[in-house]
Amino acid sequence: MPFNYQKQPVKAKIDYPARSEDTDYQNLTGRPLLIMITATCYRASVAGSEAFLQGKVGDAPNPAGIASMVGQSPADNEFAKGIFHMAFMVPLEGYYRVKLNEAGAGSGVTINMWAEVEL
How many angstroms separate the CA atoms of 33 and 79, rounded? Predict the structure, then answer.
């Protein structure tokens, strides 16, 4: 928790903001945030292909700390498609971003839902 955090009753306000991947956001809500994302990951049937996403959190822009990661890991010549759910916490004034990782022609990640809950 940040240095000046004071315990507050849970208010659980949910929002579905328009967000973009690979973009830094900062939690200025005054409360910790729970980020919940649903995504479809397609891994092509090409050697070394992969499709996954990472939730990153840190105390500065372009955070490097991986808080959560889901998706299709590398495989050779095997098509795979799946729907994945990811959740991670962001402390007060913390920075966060969702990074998509796609390798191999025909691989991809589509974010289906992005929700943020003030706790």
Answer: 35
Q: What are the extents of the domains in the chain? A: 18-118
Residue where the block lists tokens 């955090």: 5
CA distances from 34 to 45, 53, 59, 108 (A): 34, 17, 16, 25
Residue type, 17: P
- pTM attached to this predicted model: 0.84
Q: What is the pLDDT of residues 72-106, one digit of tens each?
A: 887 767 888 999 999 999 999 999 999 998 888 88
Listed as own residue / partner, the contacts of 62-69 with beta carbons closer than 8 Å and 24 or more positions apart are: 62/24, 62/95, 62/97, 63/24, 63/94, 63/95, 63/96, 63/97, 67/96
> Tell me: domain 18-118, CATH 2.60.120, correct?
yes
Tell me whether strands 13-15 and 49-58 are parallel, antiparallel or unpaired: unpaired
